Amino acid sequence: MNQPFQDILTSEDELRALLGYPNEVVKRKAIHHLDHHCRAYIAMSPLLFLSTADEHGSCDVSPRGDAPGSVLVLDDGHLVIPERPGNRRLDSLRNILVNPNIGLIFIIPGLEETLRINGQAYVIKDESILDQMVARDKRPLLGIGVKVEECYMHCAKAFKRSQVWNSNTWPEETALPSVPAIIAAHVNTAEFTEEVVRRGIEESYAKRLY
Q: Which of 50, 101, 140, 149 pairs as cysteine with 119 (C-beta 3.0–4.6 A)?
């Protein structure tokens, strides 16, 4: 496939010439521990996005959703994300094993500012920690422990532009993409029709959330 990009920037100087520099508040807003504000935000957040990369730098971003308060803050420098049942690709976990650098974005519904946390991650199975993360009578088999290195609030511009919390901007349900159709097309075998995929998804959601 031909490269369609003809004018590629290759240095920070080029970026700064176009986009400038952050103001003093932006430069100073990052902290290096979980203060009471960060703890309160995490306690209210039911959804986060987790970014990892493998040893070659190939990146992955994975959503993690649960009841508010499911992410356990151990102290000012450490938190744990429960590893609930997924599709067993283990992309995030395998990446952490070879490259512990991790980035998190915590979201609270209706709030346009997000909390960003960067740090070092570990795949853990400490029973004393996992015992505190039981949901629907099921304890997670593993957790993602994070040593916090940087925390800061991210501005609301992306949410304001997208109007994602404004239900008046949402598409009609009948216009939404069909996920079973997309997956069946991508799998591209006669065995996994759209209907087979749909039943598999429904069973997974009904029986294997926890």
A: 149
Q: What's the 3-state SS for the chain?
A: CCCCCCCCCCCHHHHHHHHCCCCHHHHHCCECCCCHHHHHHHHHCCEEEEEEECCCCCEEEEEEECCCCCCEEEECCEEEEEECCCCCCCHHHHHHHHCCEEEEEEECCCCCCEEEEEEEEEEECCHHHHHHHCECCECCCEEEEEEEEEEEEECCHHHHHHCCCCHHHCCCHHHCCCHHHHHHHHHCCCCCCHHHHHHHHHHHHHHCCC
Task: Compute, in degrees rounded to 10, the torsion defined by CA atoms 122, 141, 67, 117.
Answer: 0
Low-confidence residues of the chain, pLDDT below 50?
A: none
Q: Which of 66, 79, 68, 74 is nearest to 111 (CA)?
A: 68
What is the reported pLDDT for 122? 98
User: CB 178: neighbour CB atoms within 10 A?
Assistant: 12
pLDDT digits (tens, 9 = 90+) for 117-171: 999 999 999 999 999 999 999 999 999 999 999 999 999 999 999 999 999 999 9
pLDDT at position 1: 81
Question: Nearest-CA neighbor of 104 among 130, 139, 80?
Answer: 80
